[in-house]
Amino acid sequence: MATTESEAPQTTTVDDAPAGAEEVVLTVTETAIAKILELRESEDDPADLALRIAVTGIRGPEYTYDLTFEAVAEATETDIVYHQGELPVMVPAGSMDSLQGATLDLPGTDGQGGLVLRNPNRPDPLAGIDLDLTGTTAEKVQQLLEQQINPGLAAHGGFAELKGVDGDKVYVLMGGGCQGCAVSAMTLREGIAASITSAIPEITDVIDVTDHDAGENPYYS
Fold it and tell me: CB of 59 within 8 A of CB of 151?
């Protein structure tokens, strides 16, 4: 049923949430919960363990993560602990903003193992870095790719290649492990493109010219 403006449902914030309500930072899908609980059974005292999810650093345009089982009783005062179904989830306070709104799920492709963390948040790979980009616009983009962006992508077996510059537009091709990867377009749009337009203000649009259908669609858990 369509909702009109006057009928819009009320939203609940942390401040006005009912007493005892848990704040959900990261959502775990039902299928992922079942898999994680299955894995937890092989641990000592599984019923006492939470899934701890922490951001450990930045690799290129993405965060890096650490997922471990830890005793709920060992949570610190600053850790956020809440439940997803039967699974306690523990998030360090320092990782909360970086994981807000993310989803932990199983891979969408049959035969792929592990878990996939779909995170709408992206780090600023240029934060705290003083880049000295010189020359033409194309030369500046090439320097940025070589010095800052590609070292991070190389950890995933991928790279970004400058294919051309047309006025305020840059054309970039994703190769190696990035070609055919289901998240590579998001990586380009939200990570690499943001880095290029931030570091080189004369560029306003970054266009992906990758033929993703030709890739092997690698998956990284």
Answer: no
Segments forming the whole domain that contains residue 175: 137-214
Residues 109 and 143 in one domain: no
Q: Which CATH number covers residue 147?
A: 3.30.300.130
Q: Using the 3D structure, point to which of 64, 83, 118 is the last residue of a domain.
A: 118
Q: How many domains does the chain have?
A: 2
Q: Under a CB-based contact definition with an 8 Å cutoff, are residues 123 and 58 in contact?
A: yes
Instruction: Please tell me the predicted confidence (pLDDT) of residue 39.
Output: 94
| Coil vs helix vs strand at 82 | strand
Q: Determine what percent of the chain is predicted with pLDDT higher than 70.
A: 72
Residue 10's pLDDT band (cuts 50, 70, 90): very low
Q: In this predicted model, which residue has the larger pLDDT, 171 or 127? A: 171
Q: Which residues of 90-125 are buried (b: 16+ CB within 10 A; e: fewer)?
A: bbbeebbebbeebebbbeeeeeeeebbbebeebbeb
Q: Which residue has the higher pLDDT, 59 or 142?
A: 142
Rg from Cα positions in the chain: 21
Same domain, residue pair 87 and 176: no
Contacts for 109 with CB less than 8 Å, ≥ 6 apart: 217, 219
Which residues, including other chains, have CB under 8 Å from residue 91's CB and lie 6 or more apart? 25, 26, 52, 53, 54, 79, 80, 81, 99
49 and 110 share a domain?
yes
Q: Quick one: average pLDDT of 194-217?
A: 77
